[in-house]
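Action item from last week, closing it out:
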Amino acid sequence: MKENFIPYKGQQFSKEESEARARAYYEYMDQRRSIREFSDRPVSKTLIENLILTASSAPSGAHKQPWTFCAVSSPTIKAEIRKAAEEEEYTNYHGRMSDDWLDDLAQFGTDWHKPFLTIAPWLIIVFKKAYDIENGEKKKNYYVNESVGLATGFLLTAIHQAGLVTLTHTPSPMNFLQKILKRPENERPFLLIPVGYPVANVEVPDLTRKGLDEMTVFFE
């Protein structure tokens, strides 16, 4: 055995079971939707911790794990984040966004108001680390965007698996998050994710996802 290696302990299944599990998981994940109307029903810190641990199990370039997850439940900090986000979003909806962009968003009924930022019990702000600092020296990270994107995907999947809902919120620019949360210079905000339960009888847009033949090319 190679030095610093350990046996792989992943599960294996028969062809039939693998196919059945893959189909069942697809059908479960196909129910995942972005939600903008959150309940204020509490979510435990333990649950959030395990969601973040799942996100941290994602692969990363050279195993550098170039991410920081800031989990916010403080009403004061959430209010500060909402105020700053809505200021940026107001500017976006009143001149920064192109007409085409606004037209594409019209079907979702969104605007610059973001009440979910204070109603959702938790906000998870994902930061990407351009580099690490060890003993006062910069240490390079690799494939940072790809790595953090993968971890975020794991996080969204874990949230759905736990019976919670979320939204991938990207107020642009997001530099205010670094300031409010007092993050170091080597960290940059990547995504803001409200986490919680939906309000009763919440509705979502009637969307159709691309079919397999629209997004896949097989070479056999």
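Closing note: The beta strands are 67-72, 122-129, 131-134, 137-140, 165-166, 187-196.
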